[in-house]
Amino acid sequence: MLALSKADLVEQSVAEGARTEWVRRLADVPVIVTSSVTGAGLDELASELTREVELEPTPTAAPSHGDLAEHRVFRPAAGRAYSVERIGERSFRVSGAGVERLVARYDLDNDEALAHLERRLRGIGVMRALETEGFEPGDDVEIAGVEFELDPDV
């Protein structure tokens, strides 16, 4: 099925024209015009989803204790891991593909963007890891070959 969303942003005739074109192109595929703002088409979409999705039968018996794991250990995916190392008296390097991609998204010359980046780094634990290594506000941090000063207290 195809749901054409945000119908509230265009005239109804435009939305219906798009629906007609997609019905022509897709033949037997249901095409539903929707808007989460106005609620248009959402009941039809829910009905279509319910009709199309097969529900698995509910198990009648609870699994035995032998079928359940005693505990689970969750570890970050390898691509999300990072490492922190001291590379000078007041400088640190953070390495890891995920952190490097995160830094690449921000304009580090923009104070507001830098403050947002610092909040993100704190949220994923990088700031805590830096502090464990002795980081103090104003120390230099290098990520992805770019060196900048972090001051999360500002």
What gross morphology would you assign? Answer: elongated
CATH architecture of the largest domain: 2-Layer Sandwich
* Helical fraction: 25-40%
Topology-level CATH name of the largest domain: GMP Synthetase, Chain A, domain 3
Average pLDDT, all residues: 84
The tally of helices reads: 5
Strand content: 15-25%
Strand order of the largest sheet: 3-4-5-6
**How many β strands by DSSP?**
6
CATH superfamily of the largest domain: GTP-binding protein OBG, C-terminal domain
| Spatial separation of the terminal alpha carbons | 50 Å
How many distinct domains?
Answer: 2
Radius of gyration over all CA atoms, rounded: 26 Å
What tags apply to this protein structure?
alpha/beta; elongated; 2 domains; four-stranded mixed beta sheet; two-stranded parallel ribbon; 5 helices; 154 residues
Secondary structure blueprint with pairings:
Elements: E1 2-4, H1 12-26, E2 31-33, H2 42-52, E3 83-88, E4 91-95, H3 97-104, H4 111-123, H5 126-132, E5 140-143, E6 146-149
Parallel strand pairs: 1-2, 4-5
Antiparallel strand pairs: 3-4, 5-6
